[in-house]
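Subject: Sanity check before I submit

Could someone independently write out the structure tokens for this chain? I want to compare against mine line by line before I put it in a report. The sequence has 166 residues.
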Amino acid sequence: MEIFVVPDMWNVLAQWGATLILFLVIRHFVYEPVNEFLEKRRHAVVSEIEEAEDLLQEAEDLRNEYKDKIQQARKEGAQIIEASRERGRDLEKSTLEEAKVRAANMIDKAEKDIANQKAEAMKDVRNETADLAVMIAEKLLKENIDVKNQDALVDGLIEDLEKNHV
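---
Independent answer below. Compare away.
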């Protein structure tokens, strides 16, 4: 074995050449494909991140849109409830007015019926009074009236009245 202090130039050049060739081969067959793969992967990741950001923005837009729709639905619901309450108040008012009109009509009809019945009762009373007067006159004419007979006659008339009208 020999030890050289100064290296052999041919040997150094050969090692440098072999290293350069190895570097070029590795660069061509390993580094560039790995670098292309990493670049494609970086683009894919960036694309996925952009797509995720787009989806996130779209989801946020949908969320805001649904919030607006919910608020609008709540407003419409409140309007529907208020309209229903108003219709209920109107219905209550019209029903009350209709009931008042019906009650007034019923009262008028009852008053007319009462007046008719009163008139008929008065007519019946007049007829009965006339009949009683005729009966009294007949009895008076048939009998000779003295105090005893008069009392008996009045008692008989009262009994007849009670029998006929009770």
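---
OP: Matches mine. For the report I'm noting this point. Residues 9-142 form the longest helix (134 residues).
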